[in-house]
Amino acid sequence: MTYDEIANFVLGPIDVPDSALEMSATLLLDTIGVAAGAASMEAGRIARDHAVRFQAASDPSDAATLLFDGRKASITGAAFALATQIDNLDGHDGYNPTKGHIGCAVVPALCAFAERMPELSARAALEALAMSYEVSARAAISLHASVSDYHTSGAWNALGVAALGCRLRGDGPEVLRQALGIAEYHGPRSQMMREIATPTMLHDGSGMGALVGTMAVLMAEDGFKGAPAITVEAEEASAHWADLGQLWTVELNYIKPYPICRWAHAAIDALGGLLNAHQLGEGDIERIDVRTFAESAELFAGLPETTSQAQYSLGFALATRLVHGHIGPEHISGDGLKDKAVAAALKKINVCEEPRHSQRFPIGRWSDVTLTLKDGRSFHSGDVHARGGPEAPMELAEVEAKFFNFCAALPQARSKAIWKARARLLEPEIKFTEILSLLFDAPSVR
């Protein structure tokens, strides 16, 4: 596919299937729920304070409101702060072939840009969001195919942010071309496995992806040059863009049932399936053997001291599921990190790589679990794929329950109004700012 064809898709009229629009609305609300849940976390607070202090706008027309905070920063600062906030509560969507996440960067960018566009319809906002998922996905796959290092999502979702901004702001093909080039060149080519080895607030680089992508749009509009983007325009990248507008990958994104790195989810689901099927509890279990893919086996193995370590854990996540029956934001922060029962259960868990699972990564996230009971019996899960994606989708009722769990700090009436926006986004007369205005105020505990 040529650059001109890609530009036509990004900037011109597009026929987004109703199913893709509905999925975009669900992903948007799921991501907003994660943002609400992350508002009180230290990483989000630091990012918002930083944006207010150092990324403010001198002109009110260039400002945007920090969601679930109420203060103002620049468009770029608001996008950066919210993306960092979401990225540090690892409950947001992803697409298997990208080995990463899209919504955590493009949703903050949509909210930051759209605040200055009172006439933007909710449907037009959803169309722009769906388009940005498609651009991000192909930029990711193109990048992974061209380099040996496994780069964080910010390295490529910055291009989706740039495409989103150019569409919303009515820019032409040349501005888009420069913006994609700037976003690709300055996107954080950070190595994901470094963060896995030593989990920190850096997470998946999406805060910087949102910052760079929004900045790229505004700089390109001012005449800054940055083309070409190799992952878009290089001849060897063309094949990765060939199905643009035909295959809507936004419909293939997964939604996470747990605020934990999805590499751990298959093992969590396998464990949960065995516990439920055989009516077992923590007191019945002598040993848990987990076989998983190589990247999953490299997740944090010890007892976490920080939320970042807890979210990039496998053993701790499994121990939490074993003890509490589920994994929520409360288990990966605060007193959840000091849970003595979880610490004791962690000692029962053994993890190793299984080559057949590694061979199926990144297209699949597979694991299998064997439970050995104190009475000598054992149960095996068989190969299990992580729930939440097209292989094993969550019911909408599960997504809704997750949303309200993550929004526990909001008054119930407010969280209900926000969730109802999922259906309203598809109504033809609704303006996006009507929905966006529900997200400005800081949370207040019920």
Number of helices: 21
Which ranges are low-confidence, i.e. pLDDT below 50, for 5 or more consecutive residues? none
H/E element sequence:
HHHEEHHHHHHHHHHEHHHHEHEEEHHH
Q: Which band does the percent of strand residues land in?
A: 5-15%
Give the strand tally.
7
**CA-to-CA gap between the ends?**
52 Å
Which percent bin holds the helix content?
40-55%
Largest sheet: 5 strands, mixed
- Quote the average pLDDT: 96
- The general outline is globular
Primary descriptors:
446 residues, alpha+beta, five-stranded mixed β-sheet, two-stranded antiparallel sheet
Would you write up a description of this structure?
- The protein has 446 residues and is α+β, with helices and mostly antiparallel strands.
- It is 50% helix and 7% strand.
- It is built from 21 helices and 7 strands.
- Strands 3, 4, 5, 6 and 7 form a 5-stranded mixed beta sheet that branches. Strands 1-2 form a two-stranded antiparallel sheet.
- The longest helix is centred in the N-terminal third of the chain and has 25 residues.
- The radius of gyration is 21 Å and the shape is globular.
- The model has no long low-confidence stretch (mean pLDDT 96).
